[in-house]
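Sequence in, structure out.
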Amino acid sequence: MKVRNIVSIAFYIAHLLGSLLFLWIILGWRIRRTRGAFEKQLVRQGMSKEDAKRMSAQFSKLKDNLLGTIKSGMRQF
């Protein structure tokens, strides 16, 4: 009975870690795509490339803040 519980707990922890890893990978990939599209759109509208990069950097900061919040929530356990 106890071995079964331990295996069940290990399975759910592995599933949770796999989901978080998947989230981290997909979020990073989508942020890169979003930044690129946003920068292209700003440059098409006449903004300088440097300013467009500086504005799109906010997406990366938001991603870092989101992941930091998730990590700090996990540290409390």
